[in-house]
């Protein structure tokens, strides 16, 4: 692997869309006792179900710590590859490199800085050195040369790309004080263009309320086609979240793609608020002497937080009082993705760890 | 990766020869402070030189601990892949799986137990759990199904195979009390046949004097063609080592391959005894409170401890008073391998760690 310092855009490399053809998917075996309740047992089963489903149409590599390798190997299905790699938690979306293509069959990785969603300002854990090192190791593992973009903090969940030069993100996240506080909005936009080979950035204002990532776009709105997005939609017109969703839809309806096309917005109703139980909270280690979660704060559940695989879409189901909403969301997604089989995976045990299916996966383009 | 319990031989899988076409090579970044003097700095340079040479004709994967990954990445040439994996030392030959082929393009790994060359009886370090776990991880990493042969202790350096059913080993090693003491010679032979798909085992008596591995065959005698071996040869007719070499040559001249062919023996003169200096010994951490090495005991230097790559042979040079012997050995090897370029790498800094180029490499057949 070569470590490159240049500008990906100038070299003709760019970020493809997630709905384009993929070579595989990266995941991480959950282990952290202050993120995953009761020894991560149920979370691991949910991760295995996601990995199993994706592995039906593309290769899946699951990273596991040295201590957990043998355990992970036996819990994960044989169709999945388990590779030892040390990380600080299990968020492959955010700590993997962005895999860029030159459109002619060569991939390169863009390896950004990672500081646990806000560093010492409002990050979620410390230290985060293993997570920060993972993107370089992943470029090496997958034999792609790496652009070293470590002086810029960026997580995969904070961007969504249409593969034709248009990138979607939120101001709440990318302009947050814990990421790149010395850069202006304009400078950040330039970095995205240089490092990811995009030509236009569409800035939404906010993500979901209660999202611990400072409003990652992948929990509220993602590209599902070159000129189409799926937007998580709060149908309660009196809610604060509804106002945010409305603002997103206004921005999108007044935006065009880099090549001038209007953007079609598919609204997908949000599930009812999901709360952790007291028992679930009690299953978590304290973090730095404080409880990790309390049962009174709703988790930022969203159907948009899904993984698009080659011939299928893997979406979260929340069950319980959301059982009907789950099926309704699946119907909508099946219409949006007519050529892919949409599968729901019961993902409560991923959600209560702090994210969902999109957060725990990262695609590798073909 | 599937974990298989069956018999490789019955499934039609067998161990190919090292001189057959390879897909790549595994190595490990040296780190252990009681094996590698003065922070392993010189050893790492020697390992990098070996990796660089092999990577000219096949892919090389170097395993490095989490702590050393970034360092290894920068010391190793860009042509080499560096992958995080925890091990107890740097002996890829002995802790890797044996990669078997069905002759039709499918590989499987045979994963044996590893106990640091003798376990609690006369092993070289404790614990060895990371080394023991590596062969499974390597099968997973390289996407090959694995035969679980962990109840049998076997190191790659203790066998040499002609790819046509004949395996060479030493009684000193395979019948040692620290390996599989509950098995008879006949039972061990059967295990080798079952697990490695060989039909005949040729038993040499001893390996090199002073070899810490209980006389690994790869330091004294290895196959270089289906019916040819290279034998390390002590020309001092009064020496104990000469008697051992003579015994090997007698056994080989009275043996045939599994398919009945006589075996041609190429003798290659041993280098003069190589000793560590006091200064080198002082550069090692103590092991369990005792000095790791002393300057009065000769190291088991041998030109046979080489790596056969696709279009080259990488052999150790010892320099100093062996400068001429190095060139003479290279000439002999170049005649034995007329279609490969023989390259000498200054390998004193590998030797004083306890092995040589064959010990730190492990081929993956094509």
Question: What's the structural blueprint in terms of helices and strands?
Answer:
Two copies of one chain form a homodimer.
Chain A: E1 3-4, E2 22-28, H1 41-54, E3 59-64, H2 69-75, E4 81-84, H3 92-95, E5 98-101, E6 107-113, H4 119-122, H5 129-141, E7 145-153, E8 160-161, E9 166-170, H6 171-174, H7 185-196, E10 200-204, E11 221-225, E12 228-233, H8 240-253, E13 264-269, H9 278-282, E14 307-308, E15 312-317, H10 323-336, E16 341-346, H11 348-351, E17 362-365
Parallel strand pairs in A: 1-7, 2-3, 3-4, 6-7, 9-10, 12-13, 15-16
Antiparallel strand pairs in A: 2-17, 5-6, 8-9, 11-12, 14-15
- Write down the domain tally of chain A: 1
Q: Describe the biggest sheet of chain A?
A: 4 strands, mixed
Structural class of chain A, by secondary structure, is alpha/beta
The quaternary organization reads as homodimer
Number of H/I helices of chain A: 11
| Intertermini distance of chain A | 18 Å
CATH topology of chain A: L-arginine/glycine Amidinotransferase, Chain A
Cα radius of gyration of chain A in angstroms: 19 Å
**What is the H level of CATH, i.e. the homologous superfamily of chain A?**
L-arginine/glycine Amidinotransferase, Chain A
Largest interface: A-B, 21 and 21 residues
CATH class of chain A: Alpha Beta
Helical fraction of chain A equals 25-40%
- Give me the count of strands of chain A: 17
> What is the average per-residue confidence, as pLDDT of chain A, rounded to a whole number?
97
